[in-house]
Amino acid sequence: MDIVIRALIAFILLWLLARTAGRGTLGELSSFDLLVFVTMGDLVQQGITGEDRSLTGGLLAVATFVVLAVVMNFAMAKWPRVGRALEGSPVILLREGKISHLAMKRQRITTAELLSAARQSGYESLDSVLLAILETNGKISFFDKSRSGGGSDAGPEAG
């Protein structure tokens, strides 16, 4: 039972750490970020299983993580408020050509990253973008001014 409690604590702390890192960071991991997360997983494993080097201890820790992830996904699907609390809500980074510097600062997104995502979505500049939204998965959706007809029926361009 000790391993389950340690796994629960590690899961919550890793989830908080991932949330603190910001969606932009998690949306596109660099090679270094990936290396840090993998190494962190190995270090956390040692803390979870302690001196228990058995297959049972390792599988119990992994099973605890899987059960917690399934429970969180179920709760987010069943209760939208829980989903917003756990995952957050989409954030508007740009509206009608005006960048929300406060939102970008809170999400740790630079103007260069926003411009890069816009170029990858086929925009030469932000002048033709009606809306840029940072989705909960870390991707940026762009809504085009010319196709919007008022902005209500614009389709997102994944960034």
UniProtKB/TrEMBL annotation:
<feature type="domain" description="YetF C-terminal">
    <location>
        <begin position="78"/>
        <end position="147"/>
    </location>
</feature>
<dbReference type="Pfam" id="PF04239">
    <property type="entry name" value="DUF421"/>
</dbReference>
<keyword id="KW-1133">Transmembrane helix</keyword>
<dbReference type="InterPro" id="IPR023090">
    <property type="entry name" value="UPF0702_alpha/beta_dom_sf"/>
</dbReference>
<protein>
    <submittedName>
        <fullName>DUF421 domain-containing protein</fullName>
    </submittedName>
</protein>
<keyword id="KW-0812">Transmembrane</keyword>
<keyword id="KW-1003">Cell membrane</keyword>
<feature type="transmembrane region" description="Helical">
    <location>
        <begin position="55"/>
        <end position="76"/>
    </location>
</feature>
<keyword id="KW-0472">Membrane</keyword>
<dbReference type="GO" id="GO:0005886">
    <property type="term" value="C:plasma membrane"/>
</dbReference>
<dbReference type="InterPro" id="IPR007353">
    <property type="entry name" value="DUF421"/>
</dbReference>
<comment type="similarity">
    <text>Belongs to the UPF0702 family.</text>
</comment>
